[in-house]
């Protein structure tokens, strides 16, 4: 609810500071004193159009500030998500209008863009008048109000419908993703199969390339290898016209054996020489085996060259054979996924059909309940309208079926109304303005206000065009709405003003040759005199007595 408002240099309001509380608050005054200016200022505070015409003549800027407490949950949630959490239970808003056309909007003392500001303040106040804050005339709110009218059981059913719709939409989204994959499946599958077959046909083995390169190097240099290995064998064992290493070591060994016959101390030299002797003999045998086993096949070199070319062609899949094999494994996994796409899609479609049946079942139940509640709402509103002189009016809730499962159910709802017999029902948003609209609005608010999360309602001359016994009913209904809400009402009707829990008088005064609007909280005695003025008698004894009777009757 709005607890304080501060207005500076706004039209004729030079400096106005007001405090409010719950209940029905009345604003009254002579025509032209500036009652609508207060509504204009509140509209600006709530993000409405801020014209420079609102700035007091001769000044450069106007300011409207407000403090709200006990804000609706959705407003608190929006503020928290945007980074403007409520502190000490108070929401502080301000809007500054400058002649330059620049608007400065602040939330909790922090400047915010106007678009964000409007989003954050939406849902704080519902103004019935010439402003756009008429939530009841927004078709998007009708289904929500109808469900709230049905109570907790209907709201719980709505939650189940929303969850079913969410499940279905999730499966539908996954199906669309798979279908997009399906469009590319055949092309991608062909590519993968070709690439896998290409690698499989070559069948590369780990470390194969290094082994082939080493073998190629040996075969290319076979003549050098054979020449050198023959020379090694000759030097070690054959001698080739001169003593070989084996012969020379043998003679050395024989000489040491002869010495050993005469001097046993030389045995330490004989053991190493004998070890060398047998090592050379073994080495020569190995060299001979290598030479005899060396197989130089020119055809083998061609085979190696061809194999290396095949491996080289696989370089597009990896720099090494190990990388090529890893790429093949990844492609096999992807191919497996693609080839099983149809199976996954079929399973998903079965799940989607089951989810659709579940949604349809719950949505059908919700639709049935809505039909019942729509009838109850129409009957209740007919009674409310009859109290306000609209005995011939008719009201219906029109349902429009929705083609796709979605949150909120299988239909959209919109309120239709007509005030006269024989006239067609029309959407509530298209009902003509005037007394009928005012009474209809009051009837709707009287019936539905407790269901709305908005905490503050403003009625600007809602009694316009209403007279006789009906005007008394207007006051009663305003008072009934104010039992659980904060209600502001600008009125010229004393029968309505008498119901107020609080009453502010609005007057114009001239100070230093400048006109300004003064708003004053009225005491009980001042209220009696204001009611007498509204009755047309001001200080006349009869008017004062009538005013006292009005207040006494209400109290």
TrEMBL record:
Residues 21-525 form the AAA+ ATPase domain. One of its GO terms (biological process) is SOS response. One of its GO terms (cellular component) is bacterial nucleoid. GO terms for molecular function: ATP binding. Keywords: ATP-binding, DNA damage, DNA repair, Nucleotide-binding. Pfam families: SMC_N. It comes from the Bacteria. InterPro entries: AAA+_ATPase (IPR003593), DNA_recomb/repair_RecN (IPR004604), P-loop_NTPase (IPR027417), RecF/RecN/SMC_N (IPR003395). Belongs to the RecN family. May be involved in recombinational repair of damaged DNA. This is DNA repair protein RecN.
């Amino acid at each position: 609810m709005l607890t304080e408002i501060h207005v500076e240099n706004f039209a004729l309001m030079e400096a106005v500071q007001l405090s409010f509380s719950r209940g029905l608050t009345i604003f009254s005054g002579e025509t032209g004193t500036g009652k609508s200016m207060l509504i204009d200022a509140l509209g600006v505070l709530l993000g409405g159009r801020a014209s420079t015409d609102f700035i007091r003549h001769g000044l450069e800027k106007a300011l409207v500030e407000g403090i709200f407490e006990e804000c609706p949950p959705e407003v608190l949630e929006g503020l928290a998500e945007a980074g403007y959490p409520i502190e000490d239970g108070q929401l502080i808003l301000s809007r500054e209008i400058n002649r330059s056309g620049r608007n400065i909007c602040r939330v909790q003392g922090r400047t915010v863009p106007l678009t964000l500001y409007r989003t954050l303040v939406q849902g704080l106040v519902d103004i019935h008048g010439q402003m756009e804050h008429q939530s009841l005339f927004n078709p998007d709110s009708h289904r929500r109000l109808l469900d709230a009218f049905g109570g907790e059981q209907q709201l719980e059913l709505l939650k189940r419908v929303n969850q079913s719709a969410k499940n279905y939409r999730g499966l539908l989204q996954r199906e669309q993703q798979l279908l997009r994959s399906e469009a590319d499946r055949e092309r991608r599958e062909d590519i993968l199969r070709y690439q896998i077959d290409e690698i499989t046909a070559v069948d590369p083995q780990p470390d194969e390339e290094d082994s082939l390169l080493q073998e190629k190097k040996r075969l290319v240099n076979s003549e050098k290898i054979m020449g050198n290995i023959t020379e090694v064998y000759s030097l070690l064992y054959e001698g080739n016209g001169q003593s070989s290493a084996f012969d020379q070591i043998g003679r050395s060994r024989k000489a040491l054996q002869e010495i050993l016959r005469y001097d046993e101390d030389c045995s330490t030299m004989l053991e190493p020489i004998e070890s060398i002797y047998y090592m050379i003999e073994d080495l020569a045998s190995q060299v001979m085996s290598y030479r005899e086993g060396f197989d130089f096949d020119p055809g083998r070199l061609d085979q190696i060259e061809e194999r290396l070319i095949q491996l080289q062609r696989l370089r597009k899949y990896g720099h090494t054979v190990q990388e090529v094999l890893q790429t093949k494994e990844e492609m096999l996994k992807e191919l497996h996924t693609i080839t099983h796409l149809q199976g996954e899609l079929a399973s998903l479609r079965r799940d989607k059909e089951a989810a659709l049946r579940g949604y349809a079942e719950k949505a059908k139940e919700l639709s049935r309940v809505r039909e019942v509640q729509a009838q109850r709402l129409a009957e209740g509103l007919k009674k409310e309208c009859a109290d306000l002189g609209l005995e011939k009016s008719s009201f219906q809730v029109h349902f429009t079926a929705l083609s796709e499962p979605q949150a909120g159910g299988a239909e959209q709802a919109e309120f239709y109304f007509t005030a006269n017999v024989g006239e067609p029902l029309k959407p509530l948003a298209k009902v003509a303005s005037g007394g009928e609209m005012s009474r209809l609005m009051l009837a709707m608010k009287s019936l539905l206000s407790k269901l709305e999360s908005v905490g503050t309602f403003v009625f600007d001359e809602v009694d316009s065009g209403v007279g006789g016994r009906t005007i008394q009913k207007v006051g009663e209904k305003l008072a009934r709405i104010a039992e659980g809400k904060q209600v502001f009402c600008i009125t010229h009707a004393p029968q309505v003003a008498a119901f107020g829990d609080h009453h502010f008088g609005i007057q114009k005064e001239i100070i230093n040759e400048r006109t300004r609007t003064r708003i004053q909280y009225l005491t009980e005695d001042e209220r009696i005199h204001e009611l007498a003025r509204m009755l047309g008698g001001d200080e006349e004894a009869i008017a004062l007595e009538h005013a006292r009777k009005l207040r006494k009757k209400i109290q």
